[in-house]
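Postdoc handover notes: sequence design on the structure in folder B. Input tokens:
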């Protein structure tokens, strides 16, 4: 099947996104122009020097020395990604290997720019429908959280759906001690439409859009850190520090890149800002930091890992490597701090496990590398939605449905809509829930898993992933001829899946398709595992206990 590539709409870079208009309360209101902006297009990449920040390939042979306290810069404030933190008095500061700032304790933040706004300080014309549903004293913009909990609740912006918790709203000043992480945000102004990573279009108050534009993390430490230190996970109060010199770069394959290799700077930009989403559905994920939907989360994670498995020169890979490992550290830190994971829910829930496994492998942290086995009751979408079982097509591995199988209980999830396991039945028996699951199998999950599975196989990380059904399912997706099955589904249900983007045998990204065709057949792992019988007791039990 011809490779399919999704094109983002052509957008002009926003030269001046707002006019400053003083309001009656003395606040400055940001009124965006009626244009769309793409933070990730070619012009934006060319204009962003941070993605070409010099990054040294640290190793044991050239390990940097830890600076003395007096060697650190003494500053009144530090700035990153449009956010400025001002200290009560000059403080010693440094940067982690990914460029994020730390401050040596003691430190008190007395000012943040853009300023957090509360209640009546928010201009009325900037209120969206969710704001208006809340009492005035529960409204917030440009919010921050000291030590965000590893839970699905935040207080960055009162426009957040589902997960906004007013009890977590914080105000300045903020006294920071060693172990503290301060996550600060910039809110989306009304009327601004931003392109998100790879596909989505985001506008405050519209649909499932996040109201948060960007976020930065300031960490408080006890003393100076080595220049190759990764930022500790923002949910990790123990402040576990990893060092870039310890990265096992020899584990990275050097598979020949194909002609459609994307511009690596773009993926450096995709991954350089902290992925601070602790919730779900993308309702609170900063648009300029991270993907907004599970499918794109999986695509960005998979392609980033695949790029790092190519024959690009090590110094070319290093910025992306540092960024991607940092994401894995942050996600792993959430799990270690009690986060329940990211459940199979349609296209949501994908893409989180790969960065954790990848970081664990490269850092020699077995708990992270084997995160599924280390925390067996934590949810990861790819695993909850794939299982060994008899499929109506003759395959021996199935897509376990829109809502999959609950990792914590082993029960098939219905969520009141029969969205659980269904592929063991023929299309003639599919109710609406099964038809919904088949649509999500084709539109919003499988295509985002291909690069992930290939990167993991190239790294021979199947054992660490610890869910073989995922790999065999992706092999099935890429090699099973579904022409007859598409016809059978249409005859039985009326649903027509004969669209190029919905057909098996492809991912949406030409680079992924080419890399799969070139490298998957050459790997030792059999390509027909999806045809072979496996122990399907897990799936059968899930079918019998659908809830």
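Designed sequence:
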């Amino acid at each position: 099947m011809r490779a399919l590539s999704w094109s983002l709409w052509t957008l002009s870079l926003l030269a001046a996104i707002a006019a400053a208009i003083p309001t009656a309360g003395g606040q400055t209101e940001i009124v965006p122009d009626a244009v769309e902006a793409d933070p990730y297009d070619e012009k934006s990449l060319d204009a962003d020097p941070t993605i070409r920040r010099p990054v040294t390939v640290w190793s044991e042979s050239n390990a940097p020395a830890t600076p003395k306290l007096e060697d650190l810069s003494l500053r009144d404030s530090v700035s990153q990604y449009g956010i400025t933190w001002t200290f009560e008095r000059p403080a010693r500061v440094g940067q982690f290997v990914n460029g994020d700032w730390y401050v040596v304790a003691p430190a008190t933040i007395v000012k943040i720019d853009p300023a957090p706004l509360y209640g009546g300080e928010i201009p009325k014309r900037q209120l969206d429908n969710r704001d208006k549903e809340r009492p005035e004293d529960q409204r917030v913009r440009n919010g921050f959280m000291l030590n965000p909990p590893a839970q699905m609740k935040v207080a960055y912006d009162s426009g957040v759906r589902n997960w906004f918790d007013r009890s977590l709203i914080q105000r300045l000043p903020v006294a920071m001690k060693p172990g503290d992480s301060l996550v600060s945000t910039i809110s989306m102004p009304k009327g601004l439409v931003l392109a998100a990573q790879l596909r989505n279009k985001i506008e405050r108050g519209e649909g499932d859009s996040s109201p948060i534009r960007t976020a930065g993390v300031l960490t408080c430490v006890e003393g100076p850190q080595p220049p190759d230190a990764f930022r500790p996970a923002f949910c990790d109060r123990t402040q576990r520090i990893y060092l870039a010199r310890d990265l096992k770069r020899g584990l990275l394959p050097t598979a020949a890149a194909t002609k459609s290799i994307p511009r690596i700077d773009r993926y450096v930009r995709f991954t350089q800002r902290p992925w601070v989403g602790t919730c779900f559905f993308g309702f609170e994920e900063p648009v300029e930091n991270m993907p907004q939907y599970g499918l794109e989360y999986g695509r960005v994670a998979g392609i980033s890992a695949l790029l790092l498995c190519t024959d690009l020169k090590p110094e070319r890979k290093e910025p992306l490597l540092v960024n991607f490992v940092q994401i894995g550290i942050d996600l792993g830190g959430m799990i270690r701090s009690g986060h329940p994971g990211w459940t199979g829910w349609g296209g949501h829930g994908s893409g989180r496990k790969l960065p954790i496994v990848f970081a664990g492998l490269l850092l020699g942290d077995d708990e992270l590398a084997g995160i599924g086995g280390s925390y067996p009751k934590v949810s990861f979408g790819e695993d909850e939605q794939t299982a060994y079982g008899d499929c109506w097509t003759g395959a021996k591995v199935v897509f376990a449905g829109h809502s999959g199988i609950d990792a914590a209980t082993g029960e098939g999830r219905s969520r009141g809509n029969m969205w659980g396991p269904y592929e063991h039945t023929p299309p003639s028996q599919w109710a609406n829930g099964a038809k919904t699951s088949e649509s999500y199998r084709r539109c919003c999950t499988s295509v985002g898993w291909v690069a992930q599975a290939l990167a993991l196989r190239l790294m021979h990380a199947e054992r660490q992933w610890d869910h073989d059904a995922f790999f065999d399912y992706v092999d099935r997706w890429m090699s099973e001829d579904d022409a007859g099955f598409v016809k059978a589904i249409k005859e039985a249900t009326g649903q027509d899946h004969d669209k190029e983007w919905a057909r098996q045998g492809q991912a949406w990204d030409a680079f992924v398709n080419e890399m799969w065709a070139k490298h998957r057949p050459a790997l030792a792992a059999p390509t027909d595992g999806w045809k072979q019988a496996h122990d399907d007791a897990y799936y059968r039990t899930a079918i019998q206990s659908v809830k």
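Context for whoever picks this up: The longest helix spans residues 314-336. Don't rerun without checking with the PI first.
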